[in-house]
């Protein structure tokens, strides 16, 4: 019996309004016939999806009030100050401080409320800059992160440190997921602050509408592995229900699915049916060249898991952006 199959399972998803939170909501709705109030009876789980309107998780008292109100037994902790390379370069202090405050408030509340399972999110971008490839879960603390995102990286790395400390001192069952770059519906499509795929989708949309060139920042040479948000959602729920170790688990597509930023840009142009000029602005930063992750651990549990192809996922994200242009975060 998994820890989540008792009749009183209450799953609190922090950051439930974001890219990954909305994907988990879709997955739970699809698989559990949940009603619009996020309650569902299959698996005897009640799911609660929080947004920042429910409380500011940087604030201890507001976080305490949320835990007192919902009394969760399980927490999937997604809420974070999140941004792409260019936002991380500009706001290292805020990326460090806000994420550290949020994570501390969540972990300490999970301890106090005897939460059965806490799953938090790390990222492949917080690994050492100078390393050997592919990177695996054991290499997280082996050297400094890339300077472009060190505020975010150190705040995130401390989650892993504290998962082990809470297990050792208090017997808590806290763990973490290491996803690669994520994309999909409900992403943050801000050109200035978002990640590369949503940024490119937004820029390509404008280029097509205004008949101007589609500009890719940097050389287009860096390599990335991308995971579609709906795939990540399914695997994150599996981690919550079935994976019981404080050691992190990488949720990544296979190494063979690594692509260049240039490949991604052309995939976006194709999905958008953009036929105009494509420009690479090499005055903009490239960031980390690669962060190729090994998904051997995931494959040892889920050898046959089939990831959504980038072509299909990018088409879904583009279609979603076009259909939701007025209300999408941008
Ligand atoms: P996202 O779309 O930007 O969503 C962030 C969520 O956090 C939103 O629901 C937001 O609420 C909430 N939030 C932010 N600040 C908050 C605060 N002070 N109090 C309460 N809620 C707050 O992020 P995402 O892409 O889904 O990322 C989910 C997790 O995955 C994060 O931990 C991130 O670090 C990690 N991750 C993301 C990527 C990626 O490529 N996106 C890659 C690796 C890891 P509102 O919408 O109401 O403001
Ligand atoms: P990272 O994977 O953590 O570095 O973060 P991003 O998702 O922001 O991806 C950054 C990579 O995409 C870098 O190589 C950028 O030069 C490149 N890139 C190209 N165009 C864009 C864009 O419009 N937005 C962003 N964020 N990155 C871009």
From TrEMBL:
Q: Which InterPro entries match?
A: Epimerase_deHydtase, GDP_fucose/colitose_synth, NAD(P)-bd_dom_sf
- Gene3D superfamilies listed in its UniProt record: NAD(P)-binding Rossmann-like Domain, UDP-galactose 4-epimerase, domain 1
User: Can the keyword 4Fe-4S be found in this entry's annotation?
Assistant: no
Domain NAD-dependent epimerase/dehydratase span(s) in chain numbering? 11-245
Q: In which pathway does it act?
A: Nucleotide-sugar biosynthesis; GDP-L-fucose biosynthesis via de novo pathway; GDP-L-fucose from GDP-alpha-D-mannose: step 2/2
Query: What are the EC numbers?
Result: 1.1.1.271
Provide the alphabetized UniProt keywords: Isomerase, NADP, Oxidoreductase
Which top-level enzyme class is recorded in the Swiss-Prot or TrEMBL entry? oxidoreductase
Q: Which GO terms describe its molecular function?
A: GDP-L-fucose synthase activity; isomerase activity
* Pfam families to which the protein is assigned, alphabetical: Epimerase (PF01370)
Keyword NADP carried by entry: yes
| UniProt similarity note | Belongs to the NAD(P)-dependent epimerase/dehydratase family. Fucose synthase subfamily.
Q: Which HAMAP family match?
A: GDP_fucose_synth
Annotated protein name in UniProt: GDP-L-fucose synthase
